[in-house]
Amino acid sequence: MCGLTGFYTNSNNRTRTDLHAVAGAMARTLQHRGPDAQGLWQDPDSHVVLAHRRLSILDLSAEGAQPMLSPSGRYVIAYNGELYNYQSLQKELEAAGVKFKGRSDTEVFLAGIDHWGLNQSLQKINGMFAFVLWDRKTRQIHLVRDRLGKKPLYIGWAGNTLVFGSELKALRAHPDFKPELDPQALSLYLQHGWLNAPFCIYKNVQALLPGHRMSIDTESFQIGAALTPLMEPYWQPLDVAQNALAARQDTLSANAAIDGFSEILERCVSERMVSDVPLGAFLSGGIDSSAVTALMQANASRPVKTYTIGFEDKGFDEAQHARAIAAHLGTDHHELYLTGADARNTIAALPEIYDEPFADISSIPTYLVSTFARKSVTVALSGDGGDEMLGGYERHLRAPQIWKTMQVIPAPVRRAMEEILRRIPAHYLGKLRRNSPQFGTKLHKAAGIFALGSQEEIYDRLISAWDVPPVSGAHGASGFLNADAALPPGLSFAEKMMLWDTISYLPGDILTKVDRASMAVSLEVRAPLLDRRIFEYVWSLPESFKIRPRGANGLSSPQGKWLLREVLARHVPREMFERPKQGFSIPLGAWLRGPLREWAENLLQESSLQETGLLDVQAIRRVWLAHLNGQGSHETALWNVLMFQAWHARWLCVKK
Fold it and tell me: Which of 260, 356, 413, 608 gets the highest tally of CB atoms within 10 A of its CB?
């Protein structure tokens, strides 16, 4: 995995030596993404400069160095990612007479672009990637991001210069870049805790949408032009889902569905085990990571290295389950236990790691497990994607039931129910379910949707921390959807949420979290469940193969990820994984009242909150005091503010 950056300018204000130095400075900000080498390339006839930081995974020799020229010399690429089908593409190209110097997937991809063209090559490749491609013949810059948004790519303006990069650090390093907060983006961030592409916290900067490309003709492009209208899809999950639904396999037997899914997943896992450097797996003890690990071990010639984070708070600890599964599979297992002190030490690094405000609290254990794994491996496989592909979130299971019940309860009664539940502290509600603190938080979340009037409103509320973001005069519209296309007809409420998650929560939150946390320590993370073939296959199946309804096989409540459970059951006894979902989180509410309180108080005092002139100071203070007094569950909303405040102090309260 790597980092890329660069720029284009039609100005002659800087010499070629100066341009080279600027690109070098931008690239050095991404050293964590590529610690092994740095490369720069300047077009001799145009002010285009590409820069690359390399993390060597395949072909560790100089033949894999970037930026790289295509065999014809027409194209130059700076590429971040991995192609999992590059070996089959190489065979196809070799049969057509193409010769290769090295063994890197980048060389294969460039040769494919030379041979097939960019459009056809994008349809052929399968992997995670973001890249910039300079066409020396047409004088066009092509910027492309992978289908589901595993790898990031930002594009924006630094004065009259078009700048791009894997992270905002690189754009900020350009001497003409002027960071200015976007109030609408801030509002959306505080509501959700993350930003969905194309939104960016800075004005005049956009994140490229997943599955999209942007082609810029430097001969006719207008300096300062709006960038979002230039984004064009080459792959749309909504279209793929609609096509799959049209050919849905309603008569497929359960065993045939399991066999088909298992075959595809095993192939996806096997392809992601190709590496010239040490490889391991994240193992939380949950269904997703356990299934990936089981298939890795089945395809490995030696014990797979597995890594788990544990918590001293037993309500959040899954390490014991991971340990049991690792022992059953025979992996080389490693554990690290997390304390409040670990969190305090990690929090200071978060604004640097996530150089855009980001508030998923599980970024802390994700960063720590990445750091832990990086001591002995350079690549790790994860179970990311199982929830979105196969209906694994609580909202997929509970929201349809609540929606159905809401239709028969008068609105005044629903509002009263919401008010009553919200007044009961989450830790008291948690005692109703085996003393689970997360259960109380989930009940508070469910209470917030009782009075809503549509499925879209319910979904938006469920993925929001604030009902009304505490930003003065900049609330704007919801930004949870990044596609204009309508959902395919005939979907259930659960299926709608799964698709909404795929185009919003997955790339905006989950994949951002894993990419930044892992790349901060130069660890590449691969997610087999996010393969395009998995997505296409599961959407060709009826919902019952993903979510089993209440009553099926004696179930007392709906159960998600049915296909994945059945595949895992072929490798691990059911009693080792059939338990309530915990999630990869920490006891944040208690920590904010305890070991993190002093840090939080400093960021939430009135003088600190007033610095931007954009925050509703009194609204935030009311929520903070209510949380300290045990009046409701507010840690998620407060964490969104705290992470913004910490980010602002790091990036906008100091001189560049």
Answer: 356
